[in-house]
Amino acid sequence: MAKADSTTKPASASNKVSFTAGRVASFKCAEGKKDSFLWDEKQPGLGLRAFASGKKTYIYQVWVNGRTQRAVIGSVESFDIEQARSEARKLSALASQNISPAKVKREKAAAELAEEQEVKRGSVTFGTVWAEYVEANKGEWGQKHYRDHINFVQAPGLPCDRGRRVTKAGCLYPLVSVKLAELTASVIKRWLDNENKTRPGVAAQSYRLLFACLSWCNEQPDYAGLVDVAGLKSKAVKKTVTKLKPRDDVLQREQLPAFFSELQKIANPVIAAYVQTLLLTGARRNELMGLQWSDVDFKWQSMTIRDKGTSKGSVAGVRVIPLTPYVASLLNQLPRRNQWVFSSPSGKDGRLVDPRKSFDPAVIAAGIEGLTLHGLRRSFATLSEWVEVPAGVVAQIMGHKPSATAEKHYKQRPLDLLRVWHERIEAWFLEQAGLRVPATAEKRLTVVQGA
User: Is pLDDT of 152 > 50?
Assistant: First the structure.
């Protein structure tokens, strides 16, 4: 049976009064104590607690299940006397059922927290969770993948790094302010329809990144259940996503003379060297853009490339490939402005960013319209077959994973063995293009071509 009690000790008549506004206002903590109590005669269990700091709160104290239980009702600024008595009566009724004020307080706090979280969940926007998703996962991404996530939500009208241009809205920017709870299949379809008018390929890529983010959200306690990822991929939405055809652009042997001729007319020597090196190494475009002078060893003729295929997060995997004679001559003539081999004074971090403004006109002038920078990587793999190079050698130079058990587990080619084949590949390219080999490399190439 629950009963009201004034304190942990029996209350004296001197600290029991009928609460009035004046008595509440004048009550203070006793000198030398950290707190003092005053109890209401009208409502058993209702008390006023005054602290040495001057703060005063209404409390309720009761005896439940053999123990004194106390709960804070609220500050005197938040409750008047009648409101405090009303709260005390509610607690008293619960105490008569052996429900302690502490339990009531915990349940009330939990309910308020749940309500607050639900309000937060209902108001959170896609832009908010996108930022959290990027921050949580960027350590496992490469630089380009991370930059894509930043660019896809960038706002329009911001100053560009170069010139007087301003940024265009990222493909996902129209969804940034949409509440996650209001992200429906129809909203996504309207977004795709609009983006497909000007950039269908980018929209298709953004669509994949969007759903990767939403799947991550459903795994987070704060956002779980806010979106039905499977329901958002309706038939109408899937039909709206542009189906991208794989590219098959590749240089033909007979196109090499015109291709090299136009490349050497490019006014910017960094871009000219970069494009030729792409073709002669089969490297990925971003791998080569990230090449630093410390990665190039002219003494031992090697290049260390940060390999996408063996990288994870900020710990870069690498592959070491031969520095062939013609490529060495190209790199040796480049200006050493900073740590980047392919540097650019106008680049944000001092390196080459986008060589297509020079590359595309050169390709058109050579009569090879449609060839892309990645097509040069495809060309290296394709044209190497003219020299009858083992497929595993080409894959190792390009950074492809081994495709056969023997290649994967039994063949570990040293750099010097790769060099024999790689220099033969380069010699064949130069011969087809009608280019002279650097004098310092003529002897080595003669040996390789006769091998």
Answer: yes
